[in-house]
Design brief:
The protein is α+β, with helices and mostly antiparallel strands. The chain folds into five domains: 151 residues; 55 residues, no CATH class; 119 residues, no CATH class; 177 residues, Hypothetical protein af1432; 129 residues, Isoleucyl-tRNA Synthetase, Domain 1 (Orthogonal Bundle). 47% of the residues lie in helices and 14% in strands. The protein contains 26 helices and 19 strands. The longest helix is centred in the middle third of the chain and has 25 residues. The mean pLDDT is 92.
Length: 694
């Protein structure tokens, strides 16, 4: 069984740049899985992906020309069907044996979920790569994440782009076959302009080298990306400039070129009067240029062009791109100038014609709800509620501006510029821009208290409204990004240390909706949704599931205090007394649960009814520990509070060793249950310590 490197390359018309890397990886994974399942790989086989605008390729090492033979079991009729009443083979059993080329007495009986059946052990010959590869390639291509297929020519083949070439090489040998109507061979094509028109790949291992040296194609996506990144950084450094946030565009540009070169272009500095965000976005989004910024982060009038051509004199490339960018910048300047002719507040009524959701009304109705909620949150925070309400009223007005109509990504950003132009207070303008934050994981938070109030109102209104009409996330589907909205609320409350109660915020969010909308009040469901998001948030912060469960099981409403509670739990868990006290609390919880079911649970033990030395000692120790801990709790020293109860280990152990809680005397029994209730209440104000027991 000869093993050699396998190469499969699909030569196409230009592939979608934003999904190129994903398509290539999916092709590799699917083809390797099929090769492995069919027995053509061994444990040392490795696979590499190549992807350019015009090709998807996979190179796999140590691929067998013939898969090994493998033992197999052919299942036949059941015992009941295979033997007659005299125990002799039936025609069905004889036919089964004949079909498999064995005598009836060579058959065996095996157990199956449906009972015993006759079976035949045999060796199934391994498949041949030459007769299976094209089928596996075609099946792998069918499994790629392609939203929309294309047809070309007169055939029935379908793919994301028309296919014009197919290379299938095993070592130096061409593997015969046909995929998507194209016959396999060992010829491909190089760079459209700089490389040889047709290239012959003599063996599978030389693919990357031949493309690079003869075809002027850097086939490895990661290498090409790193090459572009290095060229961009060098060009920016040479001009004492920076690139800003450019990684997403870097991936897209890598998928647009096969042999990159970087050139510097410029535009009229007069365009810099337009907000930098507008200019940078149009350069990046429409032209795939990389804007340059100075040392202070201000946009300059220069940009970098990633070209698919390497030339000695790039003047014509640069001038052509400079001509192309000018109309785009003119459009941005036109929208900016036109938008400023009308005040933001004059645009707000126009939101009444923009549908937010068919069950939740228009954007204007939504703005009214967010404004009301923002005012309530601002009052709870003792900040300027008038500014919060004003910001909420204007927050969506830029949705009906020309600039945001052209570039939706600038919503909020443009609202801030227009608000400042209108003479609105800086806090109001900033809140318009920041109320969308955080937009994604790791994004910055709203900075000012007014911005936080409006951001919370915007997110809570979204969550309450959509929960109220039953539009909850399911599985991986979250079309309204409600998980992100909830996480945003959690981050703002915690990382901005806002003294707000989550349950009150949820109730206020539902309260701002008009009863005519007939929302289903769902505060409990939304509260649970927040709890699940908090579990993920604190898991990412490094806390264990036991620590998180111990705190969240108490249903905390002061979310900003939860990190302090978790830190206290972690510090308590490190104490030598922690394990014993956690186990004791678990035992206490079980006793109190049983007592509660019998109507005997209670608090505030009566010292006069304490009889045993161990229960009197526990009572005294608990009183003393509580006296020490309570001021610590009131001052927010949760770690000190929990540590204060470490002294209870010995008296608690002694109590359970020598005191019968469920005494026959009813008064004595209830008093001991009450003592345990006092212990549980005092120790578990920060977290349910019992949940730390393993």
């Amino acid at each position: 069984m000869t093993a050699a490197t396998l190469l499969v390359e699909l030569l196409t018309e230009e592939l979608p740049p934003k999904s190129l890397a994903r398509l290539a990886e999916a092709f590799r994974a699917a083809l390797v899985a099929d090769l492995g399942q069919s027995g053509f790989l061994n444990t040392n086989s490795t696979a590499k992906t190549y992807a350019t605008p015009r090709r998807l390729a996979v190179q796999v090492t140590r691929v067998l020309a013939k898969a090994p033979d493998r033992p197999d079991v052919a299942k036949g009729p059941s015992i009941k069907v295979g033997l007659d009443n005299d125990g002799k083979p039936t025609p069905q059993l004889i036919g089964f044996a004949k079909k498999n080329g064995v005598a009836v007495d060579e058959l065996v009986q095996i157990d199956t979920p449906k009972g015993k059946v006759f079976a035949c052990h045999k060796i199934s010959p391994g498949g041949m790569l030459a007769t299976n590869l094209d089928l596996m390639v075609e099946e792998a291509l069918k499994r790629l994440p392609v939203a929309k297929m294309m047809r070309w020519g007169d055939g029935d083949a379908e793919f994301v782009r028309p296919v014009h070439g197919l290379v299938m090489l095993h070592g130096k040998a061409v593997v015969p076959g046909e995929v998507l109507g194209v016959t396999s061979g060992n010829k491909t094509r190089g760079h459209r302009f700089m490389g040889k028109g047709e290239l012959q790949i003599t063996d599978a291992e030389s693919y990357e080298t031949v493309l690079a040296t003869e075809g002027m194609v850097i086939a490895d996506f990661a290498k090409r990306r790193a090459m572009i990144d290095e060229l961009l950084r060098a060009a920016a450094k040479k001009r004492q400039a920076t690139l800003g946030a450019y990684q997403d565009l870097l991936d897209e540009v890598t998928a647009l070129v096969e042999h990159p070169s970087v050139y510097v272009g410029a535009f009229d500095a007069g365009f810099l009067q337009v907000p930098a965000e507008c200019l940078a976005l149009t350069m990046r989004q429409n032209q795939k240029y990389f804007p340059l910024f100075d040392g202070d982060g201000k946009l300059t009038n220069r940009f970098l062009i990633v070209s698919n051509m390497q030339v000695t004199d790039p003047a014509h490339i640069i001038s052509g791109n400079q001509r192309v960018i000018r109309p785009r910048l003119e459009d941005a300047r036109f929208f900016y100038d036109q938008d400023r002719k009308e005040r933001l507040e004059a645009r707000v009524p126009r939101l009444g014609k923009v549908v937010y959701h068919n069950k939740l009304g228009t954007q204007l109705e939504r703005v009214e709800r967010v404004q009301l909620l923002a005012g309530k949150i601002a009052r709870a925070l003792n900040i300027d509620h008038a500014q919060a309400e004003r910001a909420a009223w204007l927050a969506k007005a830029d949705l009906v501006t020309g600039m945001v109509g052209e570039f939706p990504e600038l919503q909020g950003v443009m609202g801030r510029y227009y608000a400042l132009h209108d003479g609105e207070p800086a806090a109001v303008a900033d809140a318009i821009a920041e109320h969308y934050q955080p937009r994604y994981a790791g994004d910055r938070l709203p900075q000012s208290p007014v911005s936080c109030a409006v951001a919370l109102a915007d997110k809570l209104e979204t969550l309450a409204g959509l929960f109220g009409i039953g539009q909850l996330p399911t599985g991986d589907r979250d079309p309204f990004a409600l998980r992100r909205q909830a996480l945003g609320v959690i981050r703002i409350l915690i990382e901005r240390d806002l003294p707000l109660q989550l349950d009150a915020l949820i109730n206020e969010a539902f309260a701002v909706f008009d009863s005519a909308l007939k929302l289903k009040p769902a505060p409990a469901e939304l509260q649970g949704f927040f709890v699940e998001r908090m579990r993920g948030y604190f898991t990412d912060a490094g806390y264990t599931a036991h620590e998180i469960d111990a705190v969240l099981s108490l249903h905390p409403v002061a979310i900003s205090k939860v990190p302090l509670q978790l830190a206290a739990v972690r510090a308590f868990s490190a104490l030598p007394e922690a394990a014993s006290l956690a186990a004791a609390n678990k035992r206490v919880a079980n006793i109190l649960r049983q007592a509660g079911a019998k109507g005997e649970a209670g608090h505030n033990a009566d010292a006069a009814l304490l009889q045993e030395p161990a229960e009197r000692a526990l009572f005294a120790a608990l009183q003393q520990a509580s006296a020490t801990a309570t001021p610590l709790f009131e001052n927010g020293d949760y770690t000190g509070y929990l540590k204060a109860f470490a002294v209870l280990k010995t008296p608690v152990d002694a109590f359970f060793d020598s005191v019968m809680v469920m005494a026959d005397d009813a008064a004595l029994r209830r008093n001991r249950i009450a003592l345990l209730g006092d212990l549980q209440r005092e120790m578990n104000r920060i977290a349910d310590i019992a949940r730390l027991a393993t």
